[in-house]
Amino acid sequence: MDSHDVQADLKHVLYTKEQIQQRIAELAAQIDKDYEGRELLIVGVLKGAVMVMADLARALHSHVSMDWMAVSSYGSGTQSSGVVRILKDLDTDLMGKDVLIVEDIIDSGLTLSWLKTNLESRGTASVEICTAFRKPDAAKVELDVKYVGYDLPNEFVVGYGLDYAEKYRNLEFVGTLAPHVYE
Ligand code: IMP
Ligand code: MG
């Protein structure tokens, strides 16, 4: 979907399809360089990271393995519950692996902080984080994020994998919603 398809629900477009693709390509080039000669496993966090995983993986020039996890930290509202539960675990044994967690967005950082510690406890060689978006002003924990696409203002955003009540994930851009959508 593009901005015309959701015009009535939209407040602002924050990052266009082109801007997102450009930044993902830059991150992929950096990841290719940083992991040269190593075997990388990229782990996508369902469901939000589907778009960034698909674009990042295809922008890489190196072989990678791909696996998926589903965790829950949000209901259908817009506030982090702080409670993380594994809904779907990895199929891969992480012993000795270089792992890159791929996320759509880091808000409070609670989900990723928990997930990074969880994966590290499985005997990984390394665990780093790549996120398409981050809200620096919303951080509640200190989290070392190696690859960040774009920083966002502390507002609820949708698109490019990010949903509001399971809608808007298939927007090709990231934007904010008009107030009437939440009411
Ligand atoms: P955190 O634990 O607060 O960092 O929340 C991370 C998760 O919350 C993300 O992976 C998203 O699924 C969801 N989330 C956080 N902010 C937004 C937003 O602005 N729009 C949609 N989903 C969000
Ligand atoms: Mg997510």
From TrEMBL:
Keyword presence, Ribosomal protein: no
Pathway named in the protein's UniProt entry: Purine metabolism; GMP biosynthesis via salvage pathway; GMP from guanine: step 1/1; Purine metabolism; IMP biosynthesis via salvage pathway; IMP from hypoxanthine: step 1/1
Keyword list, A-Z: Cytoplasm, Glycosyltransferase, Magnesium, Metal-binding, Nucleotide-binding, Purine salvage, Transferase
Domain Phosphoribosyltransferase, chain residue ranges per copy: 17-164
Localization (cell): Cytoplasm
Required cofactor names: Mg(2+)
Signal peptide span: none
Main location per the UniProt record: cytoplasm
Gene Ontology BP term (one): hypoxanthine metabolic process
E.C. number: 2.4.2.8
Pfam families: Pribosyltran (PF00156)
Family: Belongs to the purine/pyrimidine phosphoribosyltransferase family.
UniProt-listed PANTHER family: HYPOXANTHINE PHOSPHORIBOSYLTRANSFERASE, HYPOXANTHINE-GUANINE PHOSPHORIBOSYLTRANSFERASE
Protein name from the UniProt record: Hypoxanthine phosphoribosyltransferase
Lineage: Bacteria, Bacillati, Actinomycetota, Actinomycetes, Micrococcales
